[in-house]
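TA notes, week 10

Several of you asked for a full example with nothing omitted. So below is the full record: structure tokens for the whole chain, then the designed sequence directly under it. When grading your own attempts, check the secondary structure regions first.
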């Protein structure tokens, strides 16, 4: 079984040898409860880097809701078993004091990109993400870092943060892995009440139909209203947002004059699901 390291001192000792040997290091940051989406990031890292570190840390600073943090699935033993076939070099599972030692007083925040979409509905969330991810980049000294497109806004925000702070890491986005019915894999999917699981792909289906409509030139507002109605009729309680944004930079868009992304968040069975797909 792959070595699990719990302190940055142990991690630093391991890194020193790799760096001396001129080996490239890839990191896959996660909050655990691993699924095939995470494993696709591990596969990409293994293919491109000499050494691979998977981090598992349920970051309290990025949860804007106490019950979301409390209910977040924690499955460390199963996670290690799922990673075993990939033979990564280290699973880094820092305790809270390794990330937020007594007296920790610093926050890393990206403005602009974090204003809308998930940023508007999860106050403080992205500051928590960029604070922890900057620490994980610095602690692991990674040359490359792998993130899922499932969390598309997060990917853009992390990329901007690394660029703005001159952290010498290449941030790589990997395609969303989905269930056969289209539902994007997510650690929170296990929290969906059984009776609601069948309704979950309605979100992706409505987005795909909306993207097709956009490609044929139909009116954005009409398509959006139709998609929201379909999502609610399918059993979702609420659509938080459903927006067309520039694929690069996330500026709001009304026409398909450059590559775009359709992004959505909606609630089903008390669980918040997000998804996004390319358009144009
Ligand atoms: N279906 C997926 N396809 C590809 N990457 C994914 C997928 N789901 C998550 N990831 C990526 O895995 C990394 C770790 O994500 P995280 O541990 O939060 O899992 P998650 O499934 O996104 O959980 P959550 O329920 O918090 O959304 C992130 O870069 C995330 O984008
Ligand atoms: C990047 C991350 C591991 C930071 O806690 C988290 O936001 C996630 O799992 O996507
Ligand atoms: N997958 C992004 C982490 C979060 O939802 O908090």
């Amino acid at each position: 079984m792959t070595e699990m390291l719990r302190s940055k001192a142990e991690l630093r000792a391991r890194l020193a040898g790799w760096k001396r040997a001129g080996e490239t290091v890839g990191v896959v940051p996660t909050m655990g409860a691993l699924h095939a989406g995470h494993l696709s990031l591990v596969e990409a890292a293994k293919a491109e880097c000499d050494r691979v570190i998977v981090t598992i840390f349920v970051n309290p600073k990025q949860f804007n809701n106490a019950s979301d943090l409390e209910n977040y699935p924690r499955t460390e033993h199963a996670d290690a078993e799922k990673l075993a076939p990939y033979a990564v070099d280290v699973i880094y599972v820092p305790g809270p004091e390794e990330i937020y030692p007594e007296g920790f007083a610093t926050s890393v925040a990206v403005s602009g990109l974090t204003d809308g979409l998930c940023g508007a509905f999860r106050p403080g969330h992205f500051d928590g993400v960029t604070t922890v991810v900057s620490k994980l980049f610095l602690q692991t000294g990674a040359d490359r870092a792998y993130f899922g497109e499932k969390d598309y806004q997060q990917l853009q925000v992390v990329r901007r943060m690394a660029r703005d702070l001159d952290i010498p890491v290449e941030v790589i986005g990997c395609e969303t892995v989905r269930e056969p019915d289209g539902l994007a894999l997510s650690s929170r999917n296990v929290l969906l009440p059984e009776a609601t699981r069948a309704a979950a792909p309605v979100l992706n289906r409505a987005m795909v139909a909306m993207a097709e409509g956009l490609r044929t030139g139909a009116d954005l507002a009409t398509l959006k209203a139709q998609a929201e109605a379909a999502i609610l009729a399918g059993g979702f309680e609420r659509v938080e947002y459903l927006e067309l944004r520039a694929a690069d930079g996330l500026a709001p868009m009304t026409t398909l004059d450059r590559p775009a992304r359709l992004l959505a968040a909606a609630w089903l069975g008390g669980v918040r699901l997000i998804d996004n797909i390319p358009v144009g």
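Residues 62, 151, 154 surround beta-alanine (ligand 3) (CB under 6 Å). Use that as a sanity check on your answer.
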